[in-house]
Amino acid sequence: MHVLIEQLTSTGPVVTDGAWGTQLQQLGLPVGQCPERWNLEHPDRVQQVAQSYVEAGSLIILTNTFGGNRFSLARYGLAEHVRQINQAGVQISLQAAGQQALVFASVGPSGKMLLTGDTTADQLESVFLEQCEVLAEAGADGLVIETMSDLEEALIAVRAAKTTGLPVVACMVFASGRDKDRTLMGNSPEQAAEALSQAGADVVGANCGQGIEGFLSICRRLRTATDRPIWIKPNAGLPQLVDGQVRYSQTPEHFASYVPALLEAGAAFLGGCCGTTPDFIRAIRNQLAQLG
After folding, report:
1. The three-state (H, E, C) secondary structure of the chain, written as one string
2. Model pLDDT for residues 124-183, shown as the tens digit of each residue
């Protein structure tokens, strides 16, 4: 395990941040537009999101680089701006973090499917290597491979991230199958935890896909299959369309009420995904304070 991860987890649970996409949308990002473009066009608004999590008490904040790989950016005609977009994303978060938080850069899926022959393992590797190298050069403290639905793609991303020497977090989405406990490709939490650990991930976990209730058993099962710390970032419940707007119904207090059970299930890093806000991070911190 990376020494930085050992240091972070040695004093108890680590509070991460909440959603970025839904927060940027509240600041005016139109649904369907490229969030990463804002690193260049509206850095002040991106920094506002990062800053709000630092102020809420996040000890780790991410970066607005989730779709910062060449394949994802190509959909918006931005494939040649990988370097500028990722550099800016890290710099914005570093500025907001100051001395109060660490910056772990976000690396999301490529948007292409290995299964259908959209791309090859070699192409994916070079795409993830390109992004991870830029994020590391820009000064990120760690890398988070997140919201992965294809374990094979996640493993390629982990191996690419490991070449930087930074700590690597690897998270899958478990929201498929009868019990909503499988990845889109059918992998169980145990299979994912084992494979990601073998690939060299320093932290393994789950994010997105469903509300916090479903994460208890997923967390427990990840814990049984690896000696790595577990990273958990659930959504604020499931999204609903209200008057043409996407809304998440869960309150910060209800979300945070699951914190004791998640800690018991083995979570070491706690935060939120879609629909969560700085208020959710405050609620998590309040719960932890009450637990002493």
Report:
1. CCHHHHHHHCCCCEECCCCCHHHHHHCCCCCCCCHHHHHHHCHHHHHHHHHHHHHHCCCEECCCCCCCCHHHHHCCCCHHHHHHHHHHHHHHHHHHHCCCCEEEEEECCCCCCCCCCCCCHHHHHHHHHHHHHHHHHCCCCEEEEEEECCHHHHHHHHHHHHCCCCCEEEEECCCECCCCCECCCCCCHHHHHHHHHHCCCCEEEEEEEEEHHHHHHHHHHHHHHCCCCEEEEEECCCEEEECCEEEECCCHHHHHCCHHHHHHHCEEEECCCCCCCHHHHHHHHHHHHHHC
2. 999 999 999 999 999 999 999 999 999 999 999 999 999 999 999 999 999 999 999 999
